[in-house]
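Hi Q.,

Before the meeting this afternoon, I wanted you to have the S-adenosyl-L-homocysteine prediction in hand. No need to reply - just skim if you have a minute. The sequence and ligand are here:
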Amino acid sequence: MNTALDNVLNKASFDKSDLVYLLSLEGEDEQQLFEKAYEIKAKYIGKKTYFRGLIEFSNICSKNCYYCGIRRSTKSVDRYELSDEEVMGAVKFAMNHNWGSIVIQAGERSNKAFTDRITQLLKKIKNTYAENPPGITLSLGEQSEEVFQEWFDAGAHRYLLRIESSTKSLYEKIHPVDAVHSFDYRLENLKRLQKLNYQTGTGVMVGMPFQTLEHLADDLIFMRDFDIDMCGMGPYIEHSETPLYEHRHQLMPTEARFRLTLRMIAILRIMMKDINIASATALQAIHPQGREMALKAGANVIMPNLTPVKYHENYHLYKNKPTVNEETDIYIQDLIKNIHAAGDSVGHGEWGDPKHYFARQSKNSI
Ligand code: SAH
Ligand code: SF4
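Predicted structure with the ligand bound:
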């Protein structure tokens, strides 16, 4: 065991230089970091993984983020929106398998027809399962306070909105610089969500062009200072039809991005002991068992994809996105087997809300 490393790991609080050091660990030292994170997870939230059934509701998007394969300007994707039946079919699968929660994700749109449709779907889900409703997370981009409130009232209680990078200058290199892609507006949206009492989740892409370990250290500090309840972080994976693709030569190998993401997860778990940390699908795009490996590094949420398979090819945010049909009993049994092999049980029949949220609520009410 590396005792110098152990001393850092046992500090009450990490400063930026500690974080950069931890982010650079390799080999046995990296393993020691993962073990510490898993120990913290076991102690504070238990060795338990929660499933959220992921429904990729639509790939229609009004934005043009430079990294994303379904950005407005991508011509090669057929744009789709799921029918009520398709959404309810996916929810039913999650409920039949006794998962506590679902996630509804889509490209960003703020027109009223879209926001009304989401409200109506939320109500339908809550009414259909009135006895035992699923927890509902939304990941639908930036919206007005009124819309966030309307969705909250209709039954959503968690929201994922990644900051993508907490460094404004880097954010502006990976987005067009205009009013709808503004860094300040993204931050304002995150604050809105927190104010409206959503369980608020954010995260970043790891291994992007122009991104340094110092940026990532600042991202971790941002998440701690913002007091997030949930985090979803995944490796950046280039997509050939996006503007960032031209910077692919400066990227580290995908395996290195994968490991750096695991270190980000592990460090965040040590810093924020009782939040929920999702094991992102992008991890699985690099390593077939990538999501399960993240559980060993401190993650505690997996979001199996319940989108009907025929739409998968049109929801490629990045290349090599797995197109496996996860909506089958055999696939799920296998996944559960892998989770057990990693040492976790599955939180069946529970919403699996982040403990941090309740601790934050009671702290704020004092
Ligand atoms: N439109 C919503 C939700 C869909 S995109 C939103 O933007 O919040 C969900 C996440 O996919 C984004 O936050 C981004 O971090 C991730 N993503 C997009 N393109 C990616 C890429 N090329 N590699 C890895 N992750 C990507
Ligand atoms: Fe649209 Fe989200 Fe992709 Fe940006 S990241 S282009 S908002 S789907």
